[in-house]
Design brief:
The complex is a heterodimer. Chain A is mainly α. Chain A is about 75% helix and about 0% strand. A two-stranded antiparallel ribbon of chain A has the order 1-2. In chain A, helix 2 packs across helix 11 and helix 11 packs across helix 13. Chain A starts with 5 loop residues before the first helix and ends with a helix. By secondary structure, chain B is mainly α. Chain B has one domain. Chain B is about 70% helix and about 5% strand. Chain B has twelve helices and four strands; from the N terminus they run H-E-E-H-H-H-H-E-E-H-H-H-H-H-H-H. In chain B, about 50% of the residues are buried. The chains are: A mainly alpha, B mainly alpha. Chains A and B meet through helix 5, helix 11 and helix 13 of A and helix 5, helix 10 and helix 12 of B.
Chain lengths: ~300, ~300
């Protein structure tokens, strides 16, 4: 139904099983952070892995989704589901506007343009009154789901986050394995040929970009509800860099790579947090090592070893 | 003259005088100097290596730190540092190129971007560990203290010097690349490296030197910036994002194009401070959006 091959289906079921078991063993709030990062990285991977465009400004969509979800939750007291959906829509609208400009160039220019545009979004958030500037939007309540399920309990919240993650993961997988996704891969491999076959490649790239940004917005909105806070960090370049790192480490263009990357990067940040700037040094070193020795990423290398597409 | 300078008009409800426009425009040239040096370095490196050097901001910061270290650890003052710091950082850049970056030339350009981004994180993180993020002071050299009356404003001498020095270095770079035989070899190697190599030119060494040269330009800008901004590990961050926008606006096809776009956007930024101060941080990005809508290749860009 979702275009899984047999090994992928096994891996997917194993992942779902882990999702069900882990909260009883590990701290649920940490797991929720991993899942939000993983969904964000999966959204980013849709662009770099399947369209071949490296967006260096994905934090703009994640962060705006986070702000809007936090704001509507805190001041309009909307339902948790509505807040997350609004976060996704915000990501999509920003994706449409910024993507319309950015897809005019490809390759490194695309990376620089998305970086510059996300910097503009950052300045906007710094000045705009509704974001709370340096303070951000704090003490956002988790509210209720569908009007009657209270999310104050970490475990209840965890099941919602896990549900959102699985839904997002399957959506992306469905997109990649649809005829639309095949065209995207065709564009990645050889854009002039796709154009000569009559595809309007710019439209395809823009739609993929909007989809990716929408899911990034959903991830941001979910993150805002989990931690009850939306700040400038969410729209900052360092967040954009982090999602690039997560995806690169897990494996660009692999289905499970971003999830694996999120597990590793988030755990690393968790344990290295006490060492201050060493987190940055380690992240940079991982970039260098990945690019020099390890370009397939963790999941890509495992897949290569087992001769499977994971 | 006085009557002309004090002539004022209104724009968006803000009263604006000619002298304010001239003053801010001139001050804008200072930021423009940094944009020009940095985007020129990026363009030179990109032309030869086909890599967009994301470590450029970190190397700019290293230039500022090198001058601070030369002063505080070795007692070497500003003017020798203006020469020494770019040489030192340039040598460091060549080392990076020889050992790490040169392994990527056969791969997709995006890997070069990711690698240099990682290098930037490592460099910045290390400096933050040893020097903190608060910033270290660097005094303006005695000769350049004070200010000069330009008629419409008092220009701090040091800032005037920054514009002059940057303009000279940019011009010398342009002459070297466009008018000398070394530059001719360089341009030929950019067009067709294997052919130039067949003529007996050591192209890999040329690439290393080019990277070192681009890095030295960034470090030179860093030394110039040291007395204006405090020397701190994040100083490159604020500049480099704007510089990427400058590069998109100018296109990386032309050396003169990068210089003109760099200085020009500095002036535009300065003028915006008079008309609508809130937008001065974002005006370069707005210009980028307009350029993308009307001339996606950039003002001086060649066809992709």
């Amino acid at each position: 139904m979702f275009g899984f091959s047999r090994p992928q289906l096994i891996a997917f079921l194993a992942m779902v099983a882990l999702l069900a078991i882990c909260p009883f063993v590990l701290y649920p709030v940490f797991l929720m952070r991993v899942l939000c990062t993983a969904l964000f990285a999966c959204a980013f991977n849709l662009m770099i892995g399947y369209v071949g465009l490296l967006s260096f400004g994905h934090a703009a969509f994640f962060g705006m989704g986070s702000y809007v979800a936090a704001w509507t939750m805190k001041f309009w007291h909307v339902d948790a589901a509505i807040a997350i959906i609004l976060g996704g829509l915000t990501g999509g609208v920003f994706g449409l506007a910024l993507g319309y400009l950015a897809i005019r160039r490809s390759g490194i220019y695309f990376a620089m343009i998305t970086l510059a545009l996300s910097q503009m979004v950052y300045f906007f958030c710094l000045e705009a009154p509704f974001t709370g500037g340096e303070d951000g939007i704090q003490q956002v309540p988790r509210g209720t789901l569908f009007g009657f399920i209270s999310l104050e309990n970490d475990m209840t919240m965890y099941w919602l986050v896990a549900g959102v993650f699985i839904a997002g993961f399957l959506t992306i997988h469905r997109i990649i394995h649809s005829p639309f996704g095949q065209v995207l891969k065709g564009i990645r491999e050889n854009e002039p040929r796709a154009t000569s076959l009559g595809y309007r490649t710019d439209d395809y790239k823009l739609i993929a970009f909007v989809l990716s940004c929408t899911i990034a917005g959903v991830a941001g909105g979910t993150k805002a509800l989990v931690f009850g806070i939306a700040t400038l960090t969410d729209v900052h370049n360092s967040t954009s860099g982090e999602v690039v790192l997560t995806t690169l480490l897990g494996g660009l263009g692999t289905v499970f790579g971003p999830v694996m990357g999120a597990v590793v990067v988030t755990s690393m940040e968790n344990y290295l947090a006490q060492f201050g700037a060493w987190v940055t040094v380690t992240q940079g070193a991982i970039f260098v090592v990945c690019v020099l020795a390890f370009r397939r990423g963790i999941v890509g290398e495992i897949g290569n070893f087992l001769k499977l597409k994971l | 003259m006085q009557a002309f300078l004090s002539y004022s008009f209104s724009l968006f409800g803000t009263p604006i005088t000619v002298s304010a426009l001239l003053g801010q425009g001139t001050l804008g040239l200072i930021n423009g100097s940094f944009y020009a040096c940095l985007s020129l370095g990026l363009a030179v490196i990109f032309g030869m290596l086909n890599i967009i050097n994301f470590a450029h901001g970190a190397l700019f910061m290293m230039g500022a730190f090198a001058s601070w270290m030369l002063l505080n650890y070795a007692g070497i003052g500003y003017f020798p540092a203006l020469l020494l710091a770019p040489l030192l950082v340039g040598a460091f850049g060549m080392l990076l190129e020889k050992t790490i970056i040169s392994r990527l030339y056969k791969l997709d350009h995006l890997y070069g971007l990711l690698l240099t981004f990682g290098l930037a994180l490592v460099i910045q993180g290390l400096f933050r560990n040893y020097y903190g993020s608060s910033g270290l002071p660097y005094r303006i050299p005695a000769v350049l203290q004070g200010a000069t009356n330009l008629g419409f404003m008092y220009m701090p001498n040091y800032r005037g010097w920054v514009v002059l020095a940057a303009a000279i270095v940019c011009f010398v770079t342009w002459v070297t690349i466009e008018k000398t035989s070394l530059g001719a070899t360089l341009r030929a190697a950019t067009e067709n490296a294997p052919l130039v190599q067949a003529f007996g030119v050591n192209v890999p060494r040329l690439i290393t030197l080019t990277y070192g040269g681009g890095v030295a330009l960034a470090a030179f800008a860093g030394v110039l910036a040291a007395p204006i901004y405090s020397v701190n590990p994040n100083m490159g961050d604020n500049f480099i994002n704007t510089v990427f926008a400058v590069v998109v606006i100018g296109g990386m096809g032309s050396i003169m194009g990068s210089i003109v776009t760099g200085f020009g956007l500095g002036v535009v930024e300065g003028l915006t401070k008079v008309v609508y101060p809130q937008a001065s941080a974002t005006v370069v990005f707005v210009v980028m959006v307009i350029v993308l809508l009307t001339r996606p290749r950039g003002l001086f860009g060649k066809a992709a």
